[in-house]
Amino acid sequence: MNKFIFSDKKYDVLIFILGIIISIMSGLIALLIPLQIRQFIDIPNDGLFNRTTFFIAGLFIIQAMLSGIATYLLIKYGENQVKAYRTFIFRSIINSKVNYYDDKKSGELASRIVNDTSIIRNFITNSLVDFTSGLVIIVGAVIMLFLLDWRLSLVMFLLLPLMILIISPLSNFSGKYGKKVQDYLSELTGFITESIQQIRLIKTSTAEKDRLTNAEKLFKDVYVVSIKSGLIDSIAKPLVFLTLFSIVTIIFGYGGQRVTTGTLTVGTLVTFLVYLFQLLTPLSQLGQFFTQLSKVKGATMELNALAELEPEKKDGKITDISNKSLSIKNVSFSYGDKKVLKEVSIDIPANHKIAIVGPSGSGKTTIVNLLERLYEVSEGKISIEQDNINDIALNNWRQQTALVSQDISLLSGTIYDNLIFGLHSIPSENDIDNALIAASLKEEIDNFESGLQTVVGERGMRLSGGQRQRLQIARAFLRNPKLLILDEATSNLDSNSEESIITALRNITKNKTTIAIAHRLSTIIDADKIYFLEKGVITGEGTHKELLIKHSVYASYVEEQML
Ligand SMILES: Nc1ncnc2c1ncn2[C@@H]1O[C@H](COP(=O)(O)OP(=O)(O)OP(=O)(O)O)[C@@H](O)[C@H]1O
Ligand SMILES: [Mg+2]
């Protein structure tokens, strides 16, 4: 069974039970109304304003009120469930290992969380209310009908199975297509999100037309399944009503004849018909309920998979890593079955600076990923003095490191928001100034009209490439890390800012263990040791001078940059 109830707080359960009870009560009162109508017709009365009419009016009002209250309570319950469900899934997503996202589209996932949970809410707030009060009315009305006149009822109920026979296969189909529509919609959302994110790429590659063609294909897919699902609904609805109205016609004919022969009062016939009309809506909704139920099953299956992603291992010992040496020992790593690192060993004495150089794709960022524990080392180990880094509490470890990553790690919001992102205490104005000065960003930001409150746009789109990188460097400064990891941190800087960044890096890396990855040799020339990585293997290590002499590939690297 698919579980989809996540909030089982007593208060919520109470609201739910109360909602259901009131909705049942509203159904029961609805059943009383036709009986009063019979009295009204069959027993002589003195005009419109008598006890029976007031009683009937009163019943109508109470029934309407109860139905309103029940609807509200169940909406409240449904919204509470969706809130709890969304929180649960988002928590799972944010805590899961990153490798899950290697082959996922963000827009598609977002659509799942937002839309699929809405299906569940609609089910609780609409279908469930209709179903419970409907069920009461169906059971109650059927009993009443048999009590009123069993022969008339028998005629009717011989015809009813016919209707169920028609509806149930149709509702199965409808559920299947409903799920397909949902799948295609998620895919579409993913596609549109990506198109907006990559709008610059699309334009500069003149790929608008191709993109549009692809979009049209997706629109068509959604269209086709929606139409099919719509077709089934359009067949089912009139069929249901056709069957019901045939039944009504037969009742009219047979009942009318019984009234003529005096074996049935007019009041009973009218009451009979009122009950029948009360039955119409719940009976036709019964099919919809099961369609919705199968949709909910489909949606919860997808959502539960998201709710149960494997989380990162967070627990471990708390330890201060300052003034401790770091050692990467015989580390091998594969993404899936693609081996990327082979027996890599790097030793970094406390507060030293080492650099990793090597061709693109050689595995440099992968080493960073392992150090930040975004992926787990599969062979060998990384340790801080005697502690394997895997034994240190994850947050404790990451709080003591700062990463300036190769890709844009900025969020929409202001420059200030980005600077303090993830910090546990708000830095002083002075600290912020120092960080900005160190990253040679101070002057530029002061010249922005809104200064620190300048909005950077999605992924920092409204900043220049160099500004984005320097903002990330300033953020790393503010974290005041014990272990600093710089991945390609200077690739976007002009030689002026590069100069100041080198000075800045010298300041910040003082008394800090630093691992720097750069294609530009100017930033790493003063590293205590340089490692040369080729195809996942360390092929040389030493100071700049040593490598120049003994490593021919490194020497030619340096030569290229001197030109
Ligand atoms: N998430 C991933 N899933 C599968 N393969 C990956 C993943 N990330 C990287 N790779 C592969 O691992 C290899 C090493 O990638 P890595 O990013 O470590 O290279 P790099 O040395 O940082 O290159 P560059 O200098 O271009 O940044 C590459 O062949 C890349 O295709
Ligand atoms: Mg890289």
Concise overview:
The protein contains 16 helices and 10 strands. It has helices spanning 10-42, 51-95, 106-148, 150-197, 199-204, 208-260, 266-307, 364-371, 394-399, 415-419, 429-438, 442-447, 465-479, 495-509, 544-550, 552-562; strands at 326-335, 338-348, 353-357, 379-384, 387-388, 401-404, 483-487, 513-517, 529-534, 537-542. The structure holds adenosine-5'-triphosphate and magnesium ion.
Backbone shape: elongated
Strand order of the largest sheet: 6-7-8-3-9-10
Number of domains: 2
Helical amount among residues, as a percent range?
Answer: 55-70%
Helix and strand content put the structural class at alpha/beta
- Tell me which ligands are bound: adenosine-5'-triphosphate, magnesium ion
